[in-house]
Amino acid sequence: MKELRFPEHFLWGAATAAYQIEGAARDDGRAPSIWDTFSRTPGKVYQGHTGDVACDHYYRYADDVALMAELGLRAYRFSVAWPRIQPDGTGPANPRGLDFYDRLTDTLLDRGIDPIVTLYHWDLPQALGDRGGWTNRDTAEHFATYATAVYARLGDRIDVWTTLNEPWCSAYLGYANGVHAPGERDAAAAFTAVHHLLLGHGLAARALRAAGARSVGVTLNPADVRPADPQSAADAAAVRLVDGLHNRIFLDPLLAGGYPDDVREHVSRIVEPTFIRDGDEKLIAAPIDLLGINYYAPSYVAGRPDGAGNDAYPGTEGAVHFLPPAGPLTDMGWMIEPAGLTRLLERIAADYPGVPLLITENGAAFPDKAGADSPDGPAQVIDTDRIAYLDGHLRAAHEAISRGVDLRGYLVWSFLDNFEWAEGYRKRFGIVHVDYLTQRRTPKASARWYQEVISRNGL
Ligand code: FCB
């Protein structure tokens, strides 16, 4: 295969999220989040798994950072757990919660690894969940206060700040199809949450800037939505609808000044959008410095009056048929289509020019087969399918760069195997294997491969 070089200063790293790895769920003043509650609700998470212990990263962070350094990572994207900082979601910051991220930040910097912070990766304080969560406009205001508190402690050492991770998931999986916390099934609530999440981003971004933050951004999981039949006008209309609900409902307010008319009209058929107030769109559209892109798989749709639609896309019933994933799949049942990443990056760069992009997540779950097992963990994990996935997607990213996309870096999901939300611990995304009984870490073959990629700055 062709040898590829990435641009100088291309940022190589890995990503995780607080609830998925930290554990220590009741320590140092942390209060429950909506994910603690959800994972304790029977039937919501695979085999009742919770984040109580997870990868015990809260106590093992120093060893974990040492391993990151050994692998040559230049950047590490982690999220801050809001319920550690403000256990009730409001009020004064809990210094012990901040201390943890302070130690983590210093340890990363000592090892020459750039910290990239996500302020919200889904673990809303339950106290705010009790007051309606993201359906309550106040949550957006509280989010900005929380962001300010984290910045006040870490802003002197952290350059890159991102507000939300994948608000699509928070809003639609949390409030429309109920697969994620808080597990509601109410389309009107989901659209309300979309707006309040965007508003939360806008308020937090403004607060971070006022406090002096140099780089402020947000991470989306834009979808590469494809027509089942590229010649079909009905399929093109289905693409437009799903693209509106998944992509443009976030991208347009953030990067093009406001909600698109077709999306507004669609939403209005489900809920009167009185939650959009004067000035909101202007605030949300304030320029950002970086757009984080999480990409895993494309989705294929057809326009059909008998289409069942999809609960995660309110209003698509009777209009859209979502094709079942086909071809090689990951352990999540997701399609493997690297070309989708090239298309997505090019499309965003073309439709929303001027904002640098960073791949904040990309990776795959596979049922890793351990090599010769020792009592405290596998001696080796030869995950060739993950290497192939990462290799394909890095080539796809490189292709986008060669076509002119301003892509600044790539963060693999994930550094460690971890709590994969509704799937619990049974899906393994890490380049480092975690034995959950002993907490032993074993770099997989993909980790060694990635180490080599980073050191050569290419493939
Ligand atoms: C993304 C999430 C991340 C992880 C990956 C597999 O949607 O941001 O936490 O679960 O999917």
UniProtKB/TrEMBL annotation:
Catalysis performed (reactions): Hydrolysis of terminal, non-reducing beta-D-glucosyl residues with release of beta-D-glucose
Signal peptide: none
Keyword S-adenosyl-L-methionine included in the entry's annotation: no
Active site feature: E166, E361
One GO biological process term: cellulose catabolic process
Keywords: Carbohydrate metabolism, Cellulose degradation, Glycosidase, Hydrolase, Polysaccharide degradation
NCBIfam families the UniProt entry points to: BGL
Protein name as it appears in the record: Beta-glucosidase
Lineage: Bacteria, Bacillati, Actinomycetota, Actinomycetes, Micromonosporales
